[in-house]
């Protein structure tokens, strides 16, 4: 058996970041190997919630149906504060939804079940995880670093005792490597990347149980801020809820070492602490504790996210934070979602190696925002509540204010990448409400030919292609249609981005997905009047109108701020983020945008 | 190998009626055998459309997700009539939706793909179709007919030449037999059941193709009524459309026999006829004709639908009609859906044999309505259009009027079963807009505990249990809550239908699905204040309110006409039809309803 092999991408670690990247690469036909030092798949896992943007991301890979089927939806957030008679009282309930989200609710489902969705998708593309294998060294071939087609990274692997081939050693030559190997990442350490940040003083316990209680909001995401300590309730599948329970140092810290010692805590003790905070509501002892843990929060971000644009780290390997904000699995999945299409472009020879610099640029900034969010969030929930005897405490208003402020960030739908070679906001004024650097807003349009309603996100699947949305205005108006034809003529020229990157005879649709969106018109939209370039298939012309039931769709031009009497190009990146926007008169700026990273 | 076997139900024929029945019975754990004389599964099949009610039915078996994923939605109907300059012009477009439908559109998907959904569901329950087997005789054991547990029917089977065991004979002893063996049903003939009705004079061709045309509504369900003949367009999957093309006798009738002879027609000739009717629009010659046929319409209903309540016929075996109304597969699926739960009840010993009489009672009446609908429909579309030179022709207004009149029936959502032992409309006035004898209206409610929106149909799955909907009013009002507790006390008595049919220790939920629907209240609904009987699980209390996004739900008490200051029982049959309704004060009428067919 050969002890040396060659792959496009070696992924180390099969947690959420690893399997998301593997799913994306395998579906794009990239040659991938995935290893994990664990000897079995995860049983349950720490992570519990999928945020709205993550659901959109899974949708873009065709994986949201199963996620929605298996998970529990969280629609309402409830807030409890100290009452006048001691104990707690409900101070408020607020819809737990991000305003622009297509799936405007969190989905509770254990990490193992979410990973299984990815693993099955990988399997459908012939890819499985090799378990019980650990990396032992990683080296770069300096001479090859500038050649994107070269296998410039060499990783040696050791088959562990629990593998079918214990003791075996092998060498993998990879073009690229992803370290998705968790908070104690071997890859990160091997690259000498440091984690910057602090350990907090806040200690929490977490416990999964089927609750027996008269607490009215036990099936809502509830925040209990009591004088006995704080609790967060996350409902989940199989009638369970997860309780995050604030602990004090003396509960779990070993005074001799100053470190958290899980042995000082038991599920019963954890329940006893929770029961105090639930008063006057009764939380009965749980018959069956499915899972529990104790943790102290470390809030850190890696100093680098890549080495030579050849080895990358993602997920917990590059950021650690509190689980209560429900971001861990989401941050991991979105790290890989950001990276995967860039790897595909470089491996296919579509883009320069420089495109891979955007991963660290975009995701390190995100990770820092995440830590700042988590700090504010954790401080609020760990702080003493405001009462008559403690006027300086955190009030209900403080919590609701933070809840609202962070809703866009926490849900993921408000995440914004800064201007760069890959995010060009020069013509933002063409569509002031369609923010360049944010993900394309979900919006229902009606298919011009058959009046079927579709969300634009259904046309923005993660297939590694840039999408070109042509907002064509009212094409039943002759003058407007002429403008659209003029634009098509320009984009048919060999210098245009739609032609420049194609080989002879190659179809535009092999690299780009063109969709035309017309304004609402009287009568049927004259799709056949559009230039052929803008209607590659009869399904690719949409109209900004309501569906026949008048239930959904319409108003997008106004909502986005796009003029109906101009033609406007909206370029959406393969990860669903708006890359740039330009009016027809400035189509050359779109050529420049692509010239910044695409290879002719 | 034994040549004699015993099954609960033998199903003869694996078309839509057969596999629907097999799916329902297999999911209920009934011992089923399915045979078909064909030697392979269907390639494409004649049937093309699933009507809105059929989609609801598939949903109730957990099968609608796949149907929706694989099919094409038809939202708009377009109408073309003779124009002033010769040729046709668009006279109207109308939403092609049934007002109360949960899925308010037709779904186009070929019959083989629809059957595959059922076949895979059967397979998951360990049931497959035995191909290349035909029945040769059927006999009844008269002495056993009154014993529901007896195998009272003997069917001999012959393994055909194409089977793995050609020439083999066997005997199947069945409690019940379903003849789902098509228009030329062997079962029907063996039972001596006649088909009553006529052959029409209307001759049509049908052809599937990927169209190349400038006809604007080629992706909508279009009715073309031209002086050159009528056409109906049904868009379908894989970019195809089906054209139904009106033919004249001389096109296809053999003058020597007076019978339709398919050999007199070719796809090219069919296209030539269609091209004339499309003018002034150009329908180009098709490169690839996927499927085509020619037919003359017979409109007939079987004189009986069962023999001794032991052998039943369903689908084309008991009604034949024009395919253009898009009802064939739908009628077949709904025949079996009506029958299956009744078989389950009798086989489990839950109900008397008499329950099976309701199959013919309900479905024969439906079939007659279907023929009447089809006659009107076919006459209209086969008649000459009204023009200046032919004032007596059918006008656009005639067609639209018929379209509207029959929308409820054609979509299936307006189907009404008459009063009987199984449909008791005595207290219709308690909920005047929730029609007893029609399927329960879809309606979104909010789950009281966690604010998740659910359609009531999600609580009415086809699991063979009657559903008991307790409309409990505003239970945060003490007086109202007292009424609800009073009702629960009555229903806890041993004489109550909820207790009377249970064995010792058996749970109410094993035979009935109880769901409580409260009126909207200020603040959280006090679910825990409800009697335990009315909240068997925390998920089973719903509220008549909008979801947190204010996008769906609410207003059901008003819509149905149910009083908020009374308690009202709505009994939904296992097939989703409202069986009876009663006010709390007349709960004894519900006891009487069940006593009419249930076995204590």
Describe the structure.
Chains A, B: One of its GO terms (molecular function) is FAD binding. Chains A, B: Residues 7-373 form the FAD-binding domain. Chains A, B: Keywords: FAD, Flavoprotein, Oxidoreductase. Chains A, B: Residues 415-599 form the Phenol hydroxylase-like C-terminal dimerisation domain. Chains A, B: Belongs to the PheA/TfdB FAD monooxygenase family. The structure is a homodimer of 600-residue chains. With 600 residues, chain A is an alpha+beta fold. Chain A has 3 domains: 3-71 and 109-197 and 300-382, FAD/NAD(P)-binding domain (3-Layer(bba) Sandwich); 199-298, D-Amino Acid Oxidase, subunit A, domain 2 (D-Amino Acid Oxidase, Chain A, domain 2, 2-Layer Sandwich); 428-596, 3-Layer(aba) Sandwich (Glutaredoxin), CATH 3.40.30. Chain A is 26% helix and 27% strand. The first copy, chain A, has 15 helices and 28 strands. In chain A, strands 1, 2, 8, 9, 10, 11, 19 and 20 form an 8-stranded mixed β-sheet that branches. Chain A has an 8-stranded mixed β-sheet with strand order 6-5-13-14-15-12-18-21. In chain A, helix 2 crosses helix 3 and helix 8 packs antiparallel against helix 9. The mean pLDDT of chain A is 93. At the A-B interface, strand 4 and strand 6 of A face strand 4 and strand 6 of B.
């Amino acid at each position: 058996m050969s002890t040396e092999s060659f792959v496009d991408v070696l992924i180390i670690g099969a947690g959420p970041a690893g399997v998301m990247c593997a799913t994306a690469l395998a579906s794009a036909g990239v040659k991938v190997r995935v290893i994990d030092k664990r000897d079995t798949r995860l049983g349950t896992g720490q992570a519990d919630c999928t945020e709205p943007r993550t659901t959109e991301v899974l949708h873009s890979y065709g994986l949201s149906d199963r996620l929605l089927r298996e998970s529990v939806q969280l629609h309402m957030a409830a807030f409890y504060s100290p009452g006048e008679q001691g104990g707690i009282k409900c101070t408020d309930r607020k819809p737990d939804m991000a305003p622009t989200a297509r799936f405007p609710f969190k989905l509770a489902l254990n990490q193992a079940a979410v990973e299984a969705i990815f693993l099955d998708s990988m399997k459908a593309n012939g890819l499985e995880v090799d378990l019980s294998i650990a990396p032992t060294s990683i080296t770069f071939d300096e001479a090859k670093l500038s050649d994107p087609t070269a296998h410039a990274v060499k990783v040696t692997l050791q088959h562990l005792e629990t593998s079918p081939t214990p003791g075996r050693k092998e060498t993998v030559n990879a073009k690229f490597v992803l370290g998705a190997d968790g908070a104690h990442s071997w890859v990160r350490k091997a690259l000498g990347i440091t984690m910057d940040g602090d350990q907090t003083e806040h200690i929490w316990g977490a416990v999964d149980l089927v609750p027996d209680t008269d607490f009215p909001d036990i099936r809502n995401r509830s925040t209990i801020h009591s004088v006995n300590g704080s609790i967060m309730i996350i409902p989940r599948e199989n009638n369970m809820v997860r309780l995050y329970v604030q602990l004090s140092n003396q509960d779990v810290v070993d005074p001799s070492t100053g470190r958290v010692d899980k042995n000082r805590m038991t599920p019963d003790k954890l329940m006893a602490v929770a029961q105090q905070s639930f008063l006057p509501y009764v939380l009965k002892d749980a018959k069956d504790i499915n899972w529990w843990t104790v943790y102290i929060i470390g809030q850190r971000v890696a100093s680098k996210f890549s080495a030579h644009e050849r080895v990358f780290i993602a997920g917990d390997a590059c950021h650690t934070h509190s689980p209560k904000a429900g971001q861990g699995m989401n941050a991991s999945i979105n790290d890989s979602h950001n990276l995967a299409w860039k790897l595909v472009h470089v491996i296919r020879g579509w883009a320069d190696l420089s495109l891979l610099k955007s991963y660290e640029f975009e995701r390190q900034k995100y990770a820092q925002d995440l830590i700042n969010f988590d700090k504010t969030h954790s401080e609020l929930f760990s702080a003493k509540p405001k009462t008559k005897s403690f006027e300086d405490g955190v009030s209900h208003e403080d919590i609701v204010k933070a809840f609202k402020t962070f809703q866009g960030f926490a849900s993921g739908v408000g995440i914004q990448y800064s201007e760069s070679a890959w995010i060009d906001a020069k013509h933002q004024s063409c569509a002031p409400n369609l923010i360049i650097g944010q993900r394309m807003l979900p919006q229902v349009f009606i298919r011009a030919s058959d009046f079927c309603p579709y969300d634009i996100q259904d046309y923005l699947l993660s297939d590694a292609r840039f999408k070109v949305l042509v907002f064509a205005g009212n094409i039943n108006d002759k003058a407007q249609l002429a403008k659209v034809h003029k634009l098509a003529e320009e984009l048919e020229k060999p210098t245009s981005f739609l032609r420049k990157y194609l080989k002879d005879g190659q179809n535009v649709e092999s690299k780009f997905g063109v969709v035309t969106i017309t304004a609402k018109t009287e009568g049927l939209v004259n799709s056949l009047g559009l230039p052929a370039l803008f209607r590659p298939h009869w399904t690719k012309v949409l109209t900004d109108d309501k569906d026949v039931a008048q239930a959904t769709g319409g108003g997008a031009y106004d909502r986005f701020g796009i003029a109906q009497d101009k033609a406007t190009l909206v370029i959406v990146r393969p990860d669903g983020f708006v890359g740039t926007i330009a009016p027809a008169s400035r189509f050359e700026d779109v050529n420049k945008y692509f010239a910044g990273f695409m290879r002719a």
